[in-house]
Structure of Dihydropyrimidinase:
Amino acid sequence: MTTTLIRHGRIVTAVDDYHADLLLEDGKIAAIGRHLQVGPDVRVIDASGLIVFPGGVDVHTHLENTFGESTTCDDFESGTKSAAFGGTTTVIDFAFQNQNTSPLDAIARAQSKAAVGASIDYGFHVIVTHVDDAVLGDMRHAIRHEGVSSFKMFMAYPGTVMVDDAAIFRSMRMVGEHGGMIALHAENGTVIDLLIKEALAQGHTSPKYHALTRPSILEGEATHRGIKLAELAQAPVYFVHLSAKEALAHVIEARDAGIPVFAETCPHYLFFDESVYDSDDFSLAKYVMSPPLRSREAQDALWTALKTDDLQLVSTDHCPFCMKEGHMGKVRQKMHGKDVFSRIPNGAPGLETRMTVIYDGGVRTGRISINRFVELTATAPAKLFGLFPQKGTIAVGSDADVVLFDPQAEHVISAHTHHSHCDYSLFEGHHVHGKVRKVFSRGDLIVDGDQWHGTPGRGRFLRRGEVGGY
Amino acid sequence: MTTTLIRHGRIVTAVDDYHADLLLEDGKIAAIGRHLQVGPDVRVIDASGLIVFPGGVDVHTHLENTFGESTTCDDFESGTKSAAFGGTTTVIDFAFQNQNTSPLDAIARAQSKAAVGASIDYGFHVIVTHVDDAVLGDMRHAIRHEGVSSFKMFMAYPGTVMVDDAAIFRSMRMVGEHGGMIALHAENGTVIDLLIKEALAQGHTSPKYHALTRPSILEGEATHRGIKLAELAQAPVYFVHLSAKEALAHVIEARDAGIPVFAETCPHYLFFDESVYDSDDFSLAKYVMSPPLRSREAQDALWTALKTDDLQLVSTDHCPFCMKEGHMGKVRQKMHGKDVFSRIPNGAPGLETRMTVIYDGGVRTGRISINRFVELTATAPAKLFGLFPQKGTIAVGSDADVVLFDPQAEHVISAHTHHSHCDYSLFEGHHVHGKVRKVFSRGDLIVDGDQWHGTPGRGRFLRRGEVGGY
Amino acid sequence: MTTTLIRHGRIVTAVDDYHADLLLEDGKIAAIGRHLQVGPDVRVIDASGLIVFPGGVDVHTHLENTFGESTTCDDFESGTKSAAFGGTTTVIDFAFQNQNTSPLDAIARAQSKAAVGASIDYGFHVIVTHVDDAVLGDMRHAIRHEGVSSFKMFMAYPGTVMVDDAAIFRSMRMVGEHGGMIALHAENGTVIDLLIKEALAQGHTSPKYHALTRPSILEGEATHRGIKLAELAQAPVYFVHLSAKEALAHVIEARDAGIPVFAETCPHYLFFDESVYDSDDFSLAKYVMSPPLRSREAQDALWTALKTDDLQLVSTDHCPFCMKEGHMGKVRQKMHGKDVFSRIPNGAPGLETRMTVIYDGGVRTGRISINRFVELTATAPAKLFGLFPQKGTIAVGSDADVVLFDPQAEHVISAHTHHSHCDYSLFEGHHVHGKVRKVFSRGDLIVDGDQWHGTPGRGRFLRRGEVGGY
Amino acid sequence: MTTTLIRHGRIVTAVDDYHADLLLEDGKIAAIGRHLQVGPDVRVIDASGLIVFPGGVDVHTHLENTFGESTTCDDFESGTKSAAFGGTTTVIDFAFQNQNTSPLDAIARAQSKAAVGASIDYGFHVIVTHVDDAVLGDMRHAIRHEGVSSFKMFMAYPGTVMVDDAAIFRSMRMVGEHGGMIALHAENGTVIDLLIKEALAQGHTSPKYHALTRPSILEGEATHRGIKLAELAQAPVYFVHLSAKEALAHVIEARDAGIPVFAETCPHYLFFDESVYDSDDFSLAKYVMSPPLRSREAQDALWTALKTDDLQLVSTDHCPFCMKEGHMGKVRQKMHGKDVFSRIPNGAPGLETRMTVIYDGGVRTGRISINRFVELTATAPAKLFGLFPQKGTIAVGSDADVVLFDPQAEHVISAHTHHSHCDYSLFEGHHVHGKVRKVFSRGDLIVDGDQWHGTPGRGRFLRRGEVGGY
Ligand SMILES: [Zn+2]
Ligand SMILES: [Zn+2]
Ligand SMILES: [Zn+2]
Ligand SMILES: [Zn+2]
Ligand SMILES: [Zn+2]
Ligand SMILES: [Zn+2]
Ligand SMILES: [Zn+2]
Ligand SMILES: [Zn+2]
C-alpha cells in the first residue's frame, strides 16, 4: 500500500481550517504537520491551492434497490464509482426485508451484492416491512453482532412497505434500548393513497399529479406523529428526506426541547421547488421523487435549518431511474408510468453532485460556513450512524478517505460526463465553482482528475457502532 | 523556546477524539501524528491516560475592574494565574469607557494594566457607557485597527452604566456593519431600580433581597428587547450571563428563525439555584451576582440548551469580591453592603473552576459530550470573538495552548487551594473528578501539577478579528 | 299549554345579566320586561333570589348505547329525567352505524328508541364506522334532510370502531362542504392496543392499567393528526372529551391561526386527576373512561382554556355503567372487566351533575364568569351544533327551556338521590353550592323541586341545521 | 320623556339574534317581546327590515385634545354628533395630566369641556405623564370615587408624554389592585426618536417617513414589554391601536396562557395598508397616525384575531386634524408639518364610520359574525371599561341606547356629508352596504335619518366601575 504525503493543502474539518501536510499510511491518516519529512518511497502530492476535505459520507442511497417492478439503474459498481467522482467515499445503502423474512437475510443479501461491485466502503440500513417478536430479536442481533444499527420504516405506501404506528413504536423502543435508531419516511400514506386514487379516477395521469397528491401538510403530520412515537418510546428518531416546512417546524420544536430528533434533507429540495411541476409534460417524471419538491419558502427554511443545526445532514436519496426506457439495458424505469403517474418509479440521481452543489450553493454563497459543509456532508453522517471516527473527519488514526477539492475550478454539471448509469441529472447545465480533483479511499488514490483507479469489490462492509449518539 | 512532544495523549477537539503525539514548536502546534520522531533536545512528556484539550477561552472576566466604589479582588496577575491553574489560557476582560471619554482611551488603560500582570494571553471588550458620533467613530476604529471588536452595554444599573435603547441600537447597527458585536447585560434596570428602592424603604436590607428584586421576568423582557433591537439593526447580538428560562426561550426562538443571536451562561447558574437565598444571613452575599441564581427548572433548561446549541458557550463572569473585608488588603468588598444589600458589589469568582466543574458536572454525568465540552469552553468562544484558529482548538498552526487533563483524578475544590485572591469559592467542598495536570501557553509549560512557571507580563494582548461569524 | 310568568328573576345569558320578568307562552319565550302585566290564567312563579338560566345543552351523551357486549345503564327515560333534574333540557346522543349499514338506518333506529323514552328534546350524531361512496351519500342526505349534521369517528379502538385517516379525511371534506362536522375521539388506537396487549401479557389486569396504557401523548398525537386532516379537508373539526395538555396545545395553536377547530372537555377532567389510579383496587373501575383522568397540570390548563375560549364547551360524555352487576337488572357492566381491565366498559355518569359542578367549581370559585358558564353549558353547544336560537339562550322566540337555579342552596351530591340508573356518582359526597329548583322544557314545568312532572315520550327530535358556524 | 315602541325589528346582541318589539321607557329598555301592547301616548316606530343594535361604544377618541401645538379639530359638540350619526352612543375620551399636576385636575378639566358640548354619554381615561406617590394616590381616588378607572400611558414620544418602565409598572400594580387598568400606547419611543432625527438629518421630510421611522418591530417590542410589566405587576393591561403582527403575536401568546391582556385595533388598520405610503406627496399626511399603517399580512392577521377574540374590540382612535389649514378656523393642523413630517399632528378621523365599515367589511363579507360585530363595537368595550350593563347591550334595564340599522341601504362615504369638522375621511368614496337610520340615546331619538335632534350638553358623564373584568 502506497504511503502518500499531501503537501500544502488547506485542511478543513467540521471545526478546523488550516494549512498543513497530511501523511496517509497503511490506509490511515498517520500525521499532520507543517513540513512533514518523508522518505523517497513516499508519493508526494502537491495540494497547493486545494482544499483537503474528509471524504463525503452519504447515508441515503439506493443502489440495485428494487421497488415494486422497478430497479434503480445504478448498481454498486456504477453507483460507488459515481459517488467517488463526487467526493463521497462512504455510502449507507438499504437491505430490504421481504415480507415475513428476517432482517438478517436482508443484510446477507445486500452484502453479497455490494461485495462484488462496491469500490468504496459501505454499510446498510435495513428496511423493515414487518415486525413481530422474531423480527425484533433479529434487529437486536443485527445491532449487536452485524454492525447494522439503523432501520428504516415507511409511514407511506400502504399495501407494500407501510407499517402501522404500533410496529414503528415497538421497533423504536427496542432499538432505542440497544443503541440503534429508526429512520422514518414520514408521509401519511393512507390519505395520499386516497388522493392518488381520486386523481386517477378523475383522469389526472401526468407526472405533476405525483406532487399534487402528496401535500406538505401530510409530511408535517407524519413527522409529528413519528416524533411523538419516539418520545413515547424514549428513543432517537431520524427523518429521511425532510422537505416540508411543516415537518421542519416539528423537528425544530422537538430539538428545542432536547428530544433526540434528527433529520436530513436532500440537494434537490435545496435547489429546486414546486414551480417545476407547472406542466402536464411527461418530462417532469425526472422530478418524481417522494416527497415531491416543495415551495420556495420551504426551501429557504431548509437552508436556514442547515445553518442552525435544526437539520443535521444532507444526504442524496440517490434513487436513479432512467428517463429513456432501455438506457444501458434498464427497463421499467421512468417510462413505466407514462400513462399513469402512480407507476413512475420514485426517485432521482444525486450521489455524484451532492458535495459540489452544496459547496457551490451553500459555502460559496455564504449560506453555510465551510466547516458546516464538512459537518453536513461527512462528519455528522458518520457520527450519527456509528462510523466515527473511522469516517467523517481528518484526524490522526481515521481512515485515509480524503478529497482534494479545487474551489476555483468551474465546470458545468451534465449527465454526459457523470459516472452514474442514469441518463439525466437534475442539475444538468448548472455552472458551478468547485471541483473534486483527487479522491483517496483508505489511502488508495481512486479518483485522479478524470481517471478512475477504483476497482469493483475493493469497498468494504462497515460494521457500524451505536447510532444517534451525535 | 523549548520544543515539546506530548506523547500518547487522547486529543479531544470540538469534533475529534483520537490518540496521537503532539509536537509544540515555536509556540505553535507543529505536528500531530502517530509515533512522531523527535531529536534529543525535545522535551518529551508522556500523556498516557490524559486528555489533551485546547486551552480554555473565557470571554467574560473582570480583573482589576472597578464598579462604583469597589474593585474586584483579582488583578491580572492573580487572575490569569488562577485561570491557568484551571486550564484557561485566554481571557477577554473589559476596558471601561468612563463617561464622556473615548473607548480608545479605555482600551489603552486596560492594556497598560494587563501588560504588567497577565501571564496568559488576553483581549478586551469595551464597556460602552455613552454613545455619540465621536464614540461610534472610535468604536469603528477599535474594530478595524485595535483588535477590539466587541462592546458591552448595560440595560441595567440606571444612573451609572445603563444606556438607553437608542444608544444600543445605534451601536449595534454600526458595529454590525464593521464586523463587531454588542454584548448585552440584559435586565430591565429601571424596574429593578424601583424594586430595590421599595425593598429598602420597607427595611429589607439582607442579601437575599438582591435576588428578590431581580425577577427572571425582567431578564426575559430585556433579552427580548435586545434581540429585537439587533434584528432591526441587522446585527448580531451576544447575551452575557444568561440565567432565566424566559430569556433562554427568546434566544431559542430567535435562533430557530436564523437570527444571529448568541448567549453564554455561567457555571454558577448551572450548579446552584435560588433555594440558597432562603435566609437573611449575610453569608449569602457570596451569591450576590447579577442576574441572581434562578429556579431549578431554569437550571435544567440551561443544561439542555448547552447540549442543543441554544447556548453557545460557558463563561465565568469571574467578578470576585472577598467576603472578609481587608483580605489581602482588599477593601470595600462584600462587607461594603453589610447594612444594605444594594451596596454589596455584585459578582463571584469562577475562573479557576470553570473547566473542571463543567467537565465533572457535564461530561462525566452525560449531559454533554466531551467534544461539546471543548466547543463550549474553548472553540466557540474563540470563534465567536475573533480569536480562531489562533486559539480554541488543537490544529496545526494554532497557538500551542494545551491542557493535559486527568479525567480520573479526584479532588475537592476549595478557596484554600485556589490561586485567586478571592477568599471563597462557590464550589467550596465540591468533590469532582478530573484535574488539570499541565498547562502550556504558546508552548511554555506554565502549570505543572502544583508548580507555577508562569510570569506576570508574559501574556500578550490579542488583536481580535471579526466576531459573530461563528 | 300553560302560560307562565317568572317574576323577579336574575336572567343570565352568555352575555347579559339583569333582573326582569319572563313570560313563557306556547312553549316559547314571549316577553321579557320590568313588571310584565299578565291575566289571571297565567301561572306566576316568583323567582326572587334565583338565577334564570337557559336550559343546559349536553351534546355528548350515551343513552341505551351498546359498546361491544355492554349497554349503558341509562335508557332515554332515566337518562333524560336525570338530565332534567340537573338543569339540562337538550341532549345530543348517538346513532350507531353498524358495519356496512347506512347512517340513515342508524338514525331511524336511534329515533325509535328515543321517541319512546325521552322527556326532553334530543338530537343525534351518527357514529360512522365505515365509509364508502354510498355512506358518504347517506351522510349528505342526513345533513340536508334528516337534521343530523354531525358525525363522530374514532381514531381509537381498532378492530371495532376505529376508522383510518383516509376515511376521516373523506368524511370531513364531504360534510364540510355541506354544513356538517366530524367529531373525533382522538387517541392513537393502534399504539394503545399494543400497550394494552403488552400490559395483559405481563399480567397487569387491574383497572389502573386502563389509564397507564392510554398515555396523554397519544391523545396529543391523534388530536394533531385530526387537526391536520381537517385543515387539508378545509372543514371544521370537533374534538370530544379533550383531556390531555398536549391535545389542548394543538387546539390552541390551530385556533390562534384561525382554523375552525373546536373542542369540549368533561367535568371529570376538571375535577379529578390521575392520582386516583394509585391502587390495584377494582373500585377504580368507576374511573375507567377514555381518555383516562390526566395530570393536575392538565386540569389547570383545561380550566384556563375554558376561560380563554380555547375550549368551547363542557359536555358530559355521560356513559354510565353500574359498579354492581345486576343493579336494576343491568348486566355486563363494570364487573365485566373484573379479571381484565380491557373488558371494563369505558365511561362514567355525569348528566345530572354537569351544571351544578361547573357552577360551583367554576363560577363560585371565580375561574369563569357566570356568562361564560351559560356559554359553555348551553349557548355554545347550541350554536356549534345547529340548535341556536331554538335552544341555548333566553331570548324572545326561543324555546322556553328555562332553569331556575338557587345559587345559595347547598347540597351534597349522591347516587342515592340522583335520577340516573347508575349506582355511583363520581362526585359522591361533594358538597356544592347551587341547586336546580325548577326546570321548564318548552314551557312545561317538568322539574319542580324534587317533583318530576316530565313524561317519557314528550321529548322531541331536534332537526339540526348547519354546524360549526359558531 | 317619550316612551317608544320599536316594532318588528331584528334585535342583535353579542349573542342573540331574534325578531321582537322593544319598549324604551324612562331612558331604559323596559321590555322585549312578541307583539307588545302599548297605549296611544307611546311613539311607535316600525323597524321592519331593520336591525336593532345596541349603540356603539368607542373607547378611544380624542375630542378637543391638544398634542404639542395642535388641537384636534373636533370638539365635544361636533365629535359626539359625528359619533351619533355613525351609530355610536358612548365615547371614552381622554383627560390629560399636565406634567406635575394631579390626575384629578385633569378629570375636572375634561369634564367641564365635555359637559358643555357632548350630546351623547361619555367617560374618560386619564393620560398619565408623571407618576409619584401623590399621583398614585389620586389615581386610586379616581377609580374609587370619580368613576375613572383606566389610565393611558405612553411608551413613545420621549420628552413629552413618554414615561419609563418603572412608572408604568408602579401604576399597573396600583390600579390592578383597585379595579383599574393601564392602557398603553406601545411603541419603543427612544429608538423611533433616533430614527426620526436620522431621517430628518438625511433630508427626508415628507410624510411617508413618518411610517418608515416607526417599524412594526418596535411596536412588537413595546407590546411584549408592556405585557411583561403587567405580568410582573399581576395586573390587566390594555393595548390601544394595535396594528403590528409582531404585537399581535405577543398578545395571542399571553392570552393563551390566561394572562389578562386585552387589545383594540382600529378601522384604518383593517382597511388600509402601508402601500399608501409609496410617494413623497404631502397628501399622505392624512395617513399620518401612530402607529402607521402596516403590511397586508398584518391586516389579515388582525381580521383573524377579531374573529378568534385575540383582539377584543375595535375603537377608532378618532384624532382628527384637517388637511386644509384654517378649515373651520382650525390651525396648526396637518399642514403644520408641511416641511417636516415630524411636525404633522398624528391621527385621523373615524368616529362616524366605525360601525358602518366594520359591518360592511366584516359582517357582510363573512369575516365576522353579526354577533361578533356587536361584541367588538359595543359589548366588549362596555364590559372591559366598566360600563356594562348600562351600556353595550340590549337587555331589560340597560340604557335605551339603540341603533336602527338598515343592512340593505347602500351609500358612499364622504367628508362632504359627514358631521365631523374634519375636512377629509380616510374612507372617502368607499361604497358600503348598511346605514344607520335612527339612533336613540337614553330613549331620546337624537338621529333620525339625516335629521339631528341631539343637543350639546345632553350627554352625561359616565362613572365607570371596575375594568378588565371582561
Ligand atoms: Zn423515502
Ligand atoms: Zn430513499
Ligand atoms: Zn452583567
Ligand atoms: Zn460581568
Ligand atoms: Zn370517546
Ligand atoms: Zn363518548
Ligand atoms: Zn396612541
Ligand atoms: Zn389615540
About this structure: The CA atoms of residues 10 and 19 of chain B lie 4 Å apart.
